[in-house]
UniProtKB/TrEMBL annotation:
<dbReference type="Pfam" id="PF01041">
    <property type="entry name" value="DegT_DnrJ_EryC1"/>
</dbReference>
<dbReference type="GO" id="GO:0102933">
    <property type="term" value="F:GDP-4-dehydro-6-deoxy-D-mannose-4-aminotransferase activity"/>
</dbReference>
<dbReference type="GO" id="GO:0000271">
    <property type="term" value="P:polysaccharide biosynthetic process"/>
</dbReference>
<keyword id="KW-0663">Pyridoxal phosphate</keyword>
<comment type="similarity">
    <text>Belongs to the DegT/DnrJ/EryC1 family.</text>
</comment>
<dbReference type="InterPro" id="IPR015422">
    <property type="entry name" value="PyrdxlP-dep_Trfase_small"/>
</dbReference>
<keyword id="KW-0032">Aminotransferase</keyword>
<feature type="active site" description="Proton acceptor">
    <location>
        <position position="194"/>
    </location>
</feature>
<dbReference type="GO" id="GO:0030170">
    <property type="term" value="F:pyridoxal phosphate binding"/>
</dbReference>
<dbReference type="InterPro" id="IPR015424">
    <property type="entry name" value="PyrdxlP-dep_Trfase"/>
</dbReference>
<keyword id="KW-0808">Transferase</keyword>
<dbReference type="InterPro" id="IPR000653">
    <property type="entry name" value="DegT/StrS_aminotransferase"/>
</dbReference>
<comment type="pathway">
    <text>Bacterial outer membrane biogenesis; LPS O-antigen biosynthesis.</text>
</comment>
<dbReference type="InterPro" id="IPR015421">
    <property type="entry name" value="PyrdxlP-dep_Trfase_major"/>
</dbReference>
<feature type="modified residue" description="N6-(pyridoxal phosphate)lysine">
    <location>
        <position position="194"/>
    </location>
</feature>
<protein>
    <recommendedName>
        <fullName>GDP-perosamine synthase</fullName>
        <ecNumber>2.6.1.102</ecNumber>
    </recommendedName>
</protein>
Length: 379
């Protein structure tokens, strides 16, 4: 069978280094797998050092971090939260966990992230309707910085706090400053497919010391300071284990290397697929922005080629190469069929024309060669 000719090339598999095992060994030797522990504290310190954030709380997932982050911003039942439509569903689900509802906004064509003009339009319209947004979520999709300067200016003008979903953007920068530190709360993910992984995990960063304490409190079942189990608030079981944090410590040592390799992979594809008619690369870095290029994405322009993403993807699959459509916009999801949406043409077109290519940092150039040949073969 054709698909068994070669080993499978995955989209973005975990890529472990050499030191993760040392941290794991130490935790097991010291019998410190729970609770909390030195790896957890160390992992949080590593993230603070790398990003420059004052505080970090390591959690069981990026989704948990978004949930607690929105709660810190005061989001609750009946509130509205502004959110890009073009993102993974985990950005918006926690809005609903809190009894609030999302209001979706289109992308701009350069960075593919939240459009500042549409944001202003939505902000003004919601306020006119008497529905002042409680918070704004910004996302740096595929690691690409959004137009931060323009977006933060609109948020400040309307005094709406910002949660920064940097789940895909660890290692990316804007005007030299690491992403994740621009919002009042920032969020990272260490899920298996991300640039670094703890197999599953997340982190919340903030400069507010009292919010750091509050997030830890909520993440450990909201235990009141009493000698017995007493609870005055609803809590969650959201802390990362000291074992997984050990993997995170080993991974953090590799971050700069991983960013370098992801960017090289993007450049490699650009160079080797340059001239394939109808195929182009995106998104584009905004002024002052540097992307970690988590995933390499291509667009297929239907005016120039009959090859569509839904023809190319199965074609690559027969050669045992995994590729994925871009995120399906949330305003097109059955789950959010009734949510308000401002604009929609840009992200809908990106979804129709885009495909993510294998971007794992452990990939060899020979594998990239195999992918490039498979792609050009389809045209
Ligand atoms: C992965 C991801 C999340 C969720 O992170 P998990 O750790 O998988 O819960 C949230 N937002 C975006 C944009 C993501 O890509």
């Amino acid at each position: 069978m054709r698909s068994q000719d070669h080993d499978r090339i995955y989209l973005s598999p975990p890529h472990l280094g050499r030191h993760e095992l040392n941290y794991l060994h130490k935790a097991i030797e010291d019998n410190w797998v729970a609770p909390a522990g030195p790896n957890l504290t160390g992992f949080e310190r590593d993230i603070c050092e790398y990003t420059g954030a004052a505080h970090c709380v390591a959690l069981s997932s990026g989704t948990a971090a978004i949930h607690l982050g929105l709660k810190l911003l005061g989001v609750g039942p009946g509130d509205e939260v502004l959110c890009p439509s073009f993102t993974f569903v985990a950005t918006a689900n926690p809005i609903v966990y809190l009894g609030a509802s999302p209001v979706f906004i289109d992308s701009e064509a350069e960075t593919w992230n939240l459009c500042p003009e549409r944001l202003r339009e939505a902000m003004e319209d919601r306020i006119r309707l008497g529905r002042r947004p409680k918070a704004l979520i910004i996302v740096h999709l595929y690691g690409m910085p959004c137009k931060l300067r323009e977006i933060l200016a609109v948020a400040a003008e309307f005094c709406v706090p910002v949660l920064e979903d940097a789940a895909e953007a660890l290692g990316s920068r804007y005007e030299g400053q690491p992403l994740g530190t621009f919002g009042t709360v920032g969020v990272f993910s260490f899920n298996g497919n991300k640039i670094l992984t703890t197999s599953g995990g997340g982190a919340l960063v903030t400069n507010h010391a009292d919010w750091d304490q509050k997030a830890r409190f909520w993440a450990t079942q909201a235990k009141d300071p009493a000698p017995y189990y007493q609870h005055s608030e609803i809590g969650y079981n959201y802390r990362l284990s000291n074992l997984l944090a050990g993997i995170g410590r080993g991974q953090m040592e590799l971050l700069e290397d991983r960013v370098k390799r992801r960017r090289e992979i993007y450049g490699w594809y650009q160079q080797h697929l340059n001239g394939v008619s109808g195929l182009s690369f995106g998104p584009t870095e905004p002024t002052g922005g540097r992307s970690n290029r988590w995933l390499t994405c291509v667009l297929l322009n239907p005016a120039e080629t009959t090859v569509t993403p839904e023809r190319l993807r199965p074609h690559l699959e027969t050669r045992n190469i995994e590729s994925r459509p871009l995120w399906k916009p949330l305003h097109l999801q059955p789950l959010f069929a009734n949510a308000p949406m401002y604009g929609g043409e840009v992200c809908t077109t990106l979804f129709e024309q885009g495909l993510c290519l294998p971007s794992g940092t452990a990939m060899q150039d020979s594998e990239l060669q195999r992918i490039a040949e498979a792609i050009t073969g389809a045209f």
